[in-house]
Amino acid sequence: MEKETKNLEDLKNLTAGFLNTLKPISDDEEIYTAEIKFINYYELGCVITNMLKLCILAIDQETHKITETNKNSSINVGLILEVALQLFPMDEFELLSNIIQKLNTNSETTPTV
């Protein structure tokens, strides 16, 4: 039991520096937010517009419908990918790698019954 308590404490210490992508909203632990950084409202508007255009193209696959309604119809895929990259939980993947490494190390040193 003492070893399990130590392992749990080690795991808590390990996760403290990594779980950064999702942040709890106030005291409600079941709802989280993810932060997306924008320079200004115009950039936010561009991202939303480009995502909507991309969704329209994915659904209809008829590009002429977008060009008829909006003369500046090019989709800035780079901008959409930047937002996706901000949401990608690299810290969490690093944490999972550390947990797996720790588990593998513990299983090598702990004799099986």
Description:
There is one protein chain. This protein is mainly α and 113 residues long. Strands 1-2 form a two-stranded antiparallel ribbon. Helix 2 crosses helix 4. The radius of gyration is 22 Å and the shape is elongated.
What's the gist of this structure?
This protein has helices at residues 2-16, 41-60, 63-69, 77-87, 90-109; strands spanning 22-25, 28-34. It is mainly alpha-helical.
| Total strand segments | 2
Low-confidence stretches: none
The outline comes out as elongated
The average pLDDT value, as a whole number, equals 77
Lateral arrangement of strands in the main beta sheet:
1-2
Largest sheet: 2 strands, antiparallel
Q: Hey, roughly how much beta strand do the residues contain?
A: 5-15%
What are the secondary-structure elements, in order, as H or E? HEEHHHH
Supply the helix-strand structural class. mainly alpha
Helix content: 55-70%
How much is the radius of gyration in Å?
22 Å
Spatial gap, N to C terminus = 16 Å
The number of helical elements comes to 5
